[in-house]
């Protein structure tokens, strides 16, 4: 049994997971293609941060959404500890993040991931994300893949 809850990006469990993610990505990509954002520097109202915990309350995964204030957000720092993969925790985490984003007025989510992270790409595709062009603040990068998902099928409903 796992739980998914909101958490501060400065919590030691989160910083440990993000350090593991950074270490992993540094083995795959050069520094200029690793778009690492320090979530602790963002205002609280602009961030959704969630953690997955196992029965023993060990943090085994995390993910965040940076809200842009215009109805869009960017998925960041999604990571599941390798020993807990294969249990659809990624899908559950994305669904929880998306629900919270939508409750805060977010209608479109975007993300950047690396082309070598095939499991992550599959997760995002299974969760309804589709490839798109690079979006600000990114520039096209042959090692990056950009994706987006509309959380509201009819954007006219997002303003009601």
Automatic annotation (TrEMBL):
Keywords from the named record: Acyltransferase, Transferase
Cited Gene3D superfamilies: 3.40.630.30
InterPro entries xref list: Acyl_CoA_acyltransferase, Bact_Acetyltransf, GNAT_dom
N-acetyltransferase domain mapped to chain residues: 2-152
Pfam families: Acetyltransf_1
Residue ranges of coiled coil: none
Transmembrane segments: none
CDD domains recorded: NAT_SF
Signal peptide residue numbers: none
PANTHER family documented for this protein: AMINOALKYLPHOSPHONATE N-ACETYLTRANSFERASE-RELATED (PTHR43877:SF2), AMINOALKYLPHOSPHONATE N-ACETYLTRANSFERASE-RELATED-RELATED (PTHR43877)
This protein's name: GNAT family N-acetyltransferase
Organism for this UniProt entry: Leclercia barmai
């Amino acid at each position: 049994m796992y739980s998914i809850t909101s958490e501060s990006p400065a919590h030691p469990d989160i910083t440990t997971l993000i350090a593991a993610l950074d270490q992993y990505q540094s083995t795959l990509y050069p520094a200029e293609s690793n778009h690492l954002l320090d979530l602790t520097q963002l205002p609280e109202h602009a961030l959704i941060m969630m953690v997955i915990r196992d029965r023993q309350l060990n943090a085994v995964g995390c993910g965040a959404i940076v809200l842009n204030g215009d109805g869009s957000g960017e998925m960041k720092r999604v990571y599941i500890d390798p020993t807990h993969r294969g249990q659809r925790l990624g899908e559950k985490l994305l669904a929880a993040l998306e629900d919270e984003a939508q409750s805060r007025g977010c209608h479109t989510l975007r993300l950047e991931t690396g082309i070598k992270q095939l499991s992550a790409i599959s997760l995002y595709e299974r969760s309804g994300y589709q490839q798109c062009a690079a979006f600000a603040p990114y520039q096209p990068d042959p090692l990056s893949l950009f994706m987006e998902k509309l959380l509201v099928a009819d954007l006219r409903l997002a303003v009601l």
